Amino acid sequence: MNESTLTVRQLADMLRQDARDVEKMASRGHLPARRVGGEWTFAAAEINLWLEKRLPGYSDEELSRFDSSAEPERGPVVCQLLAQDNIELGLQARTRSSLLQEMVKIAERSWQVWDPQALLASLREREQRSSTAQAGGVAIPHPARRLPDALGESVVSLARLAEPLSLGAPDNAPTDLVFMVACRSDGSHLRVLARLGRLLMRPEVTEGLRAATSARDAWHLLEEAERTLSANPQ
């Protein structure tokens, strides 16, 4: 088994589910899977895309399964990867392409983006598969695959657009809040997406980000919201 494929047990651990339930889902066609030598195998890239499409529709309780680790996390997850320098309020971008370019430039301020062109290319590849815009005016662009050689450490950048863009959200609403997530591992990637999902379903967070007058205010708003989540886990 190589790094690009998962066994039933590995996927069960990833999904925080019983291995028998994963086998049932595979046999019923509810998961992208292949039968090899009598055993179910799963392509990591296909599973990640399958999960990414479903996470926005998950409840807070369902997202909390991914928003955890082997050791309890005491404190922020997103804000560990998002510095105040990686927040831009009033970003000017008129197209999806220019938006992705600007999100990479903002992330470069972290000094953790070693290959911005590779990151940008993978962001575009992911958007070509399906839009990462979500209902409620939010988008979370991310690479089509993990890019450990392009990053020193995982990084998140945040922009509030000066003029909302239509990016193909399921509710057809324009997007004005954009989080770019670039992680070095699948585990970190899913955890950050889950934490963001939990944060963004809270009106006080999205309303606060839209009202913030500085990057400092936006960062502290997110940090406080994360600490509240950490103090009150599901």
Order of helical and strand elements? EHHEEHHHEHHEEEEHHH
Task: Estimate the global geometry from the Cα principal axes.
Answer: globular
Structural class: alpha/beta
Question: How many E-type strands?
Answer: 8
Largest sheet: 5 strands, mixed
**Radius of gyration over alpha carbons?**
18 Å
Explain this structure.
It is a single chain. The protein has about 230 residues and is an alpha/beta fold. The chain folds into two domains: about 5-55, Orthogonal Bundle (Multidrug-efflux Transporter Regulator, Chain: A, Domain 2), CATH 1.10.1660; about 80-230, Mannitol-specific EII, Chain A (3-Layer(aba) Sandwich). It is about 45% helix and about 15% strand. The protein is built from ten helices and eight strands. It has helices at about 10-15, 20-25, 45-55, 60-65, 80, 95-110, 115-130, 185-200, 205-210, 215-230; strands at about 5, 35, 40-45, 85-90, 135, 140, 155-165, 175-180. It has a five-stranded mixed β-sheet. A three-stranded antiparallel β-sheet has the order 1-3-2. A hairpin with a 2-residue loop joins β2 (about 35) and β3 (about 40-45). The relative contact order is 0.15.
Quickly describe the structure.
This protein is α/β, with parallel strands linked by helices and 234 residues long. The chain is built from ten helices and eight strands.
Task: Name some characteristics of this structure.
234 residues; alpha/beta; Multidrug-efflux Transporter Regulator, Chain: A, Domain 2; Mannitol-specific EII, Chain A; 5-stranded mixed β-sheet; 3-stranded antiparallel β-sheet; 10 helices; 8 strands; 46% helix; globular
